[in-house]
Amino acid sequence: MEVDRDDPDQQSLLFWYPTVTAAAGQYVRSAVKVEGGGKSALDPNLPTTIKPYVNDDLPGVDIRISGITTVEAERTFWDKVVILHGLRRW
Q1: Of 73, 81, 86, 90, which one is least surrounded by beta carbons within 10 A?
Q2: How many folded domains does the chain comprise?
Q3: Separation of alpha carbons 76 and 35, rounded Å
């Protein structure tokens, strides 16, 4: 696991895995890219711990991340209400 050096925001991780056949080139890398980052306003928010699904499949490896600021579900609900209101043009 390493930070993706090609990500200018440094918000992506690369999980490398072994291959069973010889690589035919660099077109397909032997890695899974996990992207993160915030793209919206953060109020109301709460700190939480993010646990990727793959964490359960990697015994001895803990890739949970604590202290992540997340948008509360209430916010995303009202965002959708405003979008629907705009689409309906009431």
Answers
A1: 90
A2: 2
A3: 20
Look at the block and give the residue holding tokens 């056949």: 21
Output the CA torsion sign for 32, 9, 59, 55. Answer: negative
The answer to whether residues 31 and 48 belong to one domain is no
7 and 49 in a single domain? The answer is: no
Q: Do 33 and 68 sit in the same domain of this protein?
A: no
- Residue 39 CA: distances (Å) to CA of 1, 12, 56, 63, 74: 24, 14, 27, 22, 17
Q: List the domain range (segments joined by +) for residue 52.
A: 41-90
Whether residue 2 is found in the same domain as residue 26: yes
Cα–Cα dist 23/21, whole Å: 6
Nearest-angstrom CA–CA distance, 41 and 48? 16
Predicted local confidence at residue 5, as pLDDT: 92
0.70 exceeded by pTM: no
Give the Å distances, CA to CA, from 13 to 4, 9, 33, 71, 82: 5, 11, 6, 22, 34
